[in-house]
Amino acid sequence: MRYAVFVLLIIFLSFNYLIGQGSNNRVISTAIPFLTFTPDARAAGLGDAGVATSPDIYSIYWNNGKLAFLEQTIGATLSYTPWLSNITDDMFIGYAAACYKIDSSQAVGISLKHFDLGKFEINDDVGSFVANFNSYETAIDVTYSRKLSSKIGLGLTGRYIRSDIPGQFALLEDLQPGKTLAFDLGVYYRNRLNIAKKPTEFSFGLHISNLGQKLSYDGGIQQYFIPTNLRLGAALSSEISPDHQVMFAIDLNKLLVPSPPIYSKNEQGELVIAKGEDPNRSLLSGVWGSFSDAPDGFGEELQEISLSLGAEYSYKSKLFLRTGYFHEHENKGGWKYLTFGVGIKVQKFMVDFSYLVPTVENHPLANTLRLSLGFALG
């Protein structure tokens, strides 16, 4: 029975592998990958691009350096995403956030991201039912953002993470919920200018997220990297006419955790590293080494960078139409999909919707929908 629970735990820790499309890939796997799942419908409609797009309340997640550039004083949002809906009907991602503009240069925010993994059944060694348990993972954030000038903003987020995969049953006394702390750092730059006599805004963003200690479910005997992540991006928005605006965005994304090495057996039949580096490293060693530890060298390092492209059209800043494309190399998961989205703003309220269309067959994320509801005052 305990063996079955450990198998379930390994499945969750290897979640990246389960949803990767390549059969001969070397996907980077971490604990709690839900931290990297897009929580909101706006960015999801833009192909998961968000680090340099115009500031909104979701800046808490995408780039906390943007939050101080919000025009509204108070904002709040709720988002809901049924997860792997083609496979199961009881998994979902929920996201809630709120922010407050202290003054013209400072803003604070809080958010909660919850990943419900659904209900699971425990059976004994002969297959008899013992109990049900519900697994979930949660992250709670507190963010502070400040303008350094009219063009540059910095942000800092502290995060508490809890991963309750094994459930709380006496039968699982050797396992416990995984808990850790992490933080995010963000930089945002924007400059307003005229191109072809049209008001235009160029922006750039850099965001490092989930920089924190490893996670453990057994008191520290086995420790797993969390998905420390680097995201770089740029966006260009232009006013075609007073009623019509367009925006184009690009994000580059890379996990800052060890690349999986290539193993072989020595003369004694033991597994040894044939190419690459030992993944059992400290946090800082894993971060710095992530730029040079791929077994096949620089070419494989480039494969670990995913690409997000997005475009948004808005009419009178009330109706928004979006599309995007996400690309990941086949050897690193092979996620490739188109996205579409729409947003409607009515007075102080905003509704966003997105839809994901994979470019490969039998993709587990096919038909993924996201819905976000928000409001802003001031």
Please render the helix and strand layout as text.
Blueprint: H1 2-13, H2 15-19, H3 41-45, H4 59-62, E1 74-82, E2 92-101, E3 106-123, E4 129-147, E5 152-164, E6 178-195, E7 198-212, E8 229-241, E9 244-255, E10 262-265, E11 271-275, H5 283-289, H6 298-303, E12 306-315, E13 319-327, E14 336-346, E15 349-358, E16 369-377
Antiparallel strand pairs: 1-2, 1-16, 2-3, 3-4, 4-5, 5-6, 6-7, 7-8, 8-9, 9-12, 10-11, 12-13, 13-14, 14-15, 15-16
Describe this structure in words.
The structure is a single chain. With 378 residues, the protein is mainly beta. It has helices at residues 2-13, 15-19, 41-45, 59-62, 283-289, 298-303, and strands at residues 74-82, 92-101, 106-123, 129-147, 152-164, 178-195, 198-212, 229-241, 244-255, 262-265, 271-275, 306-315, 319-327, 336-346, 349-358, 369-377. It has one domain (2-377): Porin, CATH 2.40.160.40. It contains 6 helices and 16 strands.
Summarize the structure in short:
10% of the residues lie in helices and 49% in strands. It is mostly beta strands.
Note the overall shape.
Answer: globular
* H/I helix tally: 6
Instruction: Identify low-pLDDT runs.
Output: 1-8, 17-23
Q: Main sheet, how many strands, which sense, barrel? A: 14 strands, antiparallel, barrel
What is the level-2 CATH architecture name? Answer: Beta Barrel
List its traits.
14-stranded antiparallel beta barrel; single chain; 6 helices; 378 residues
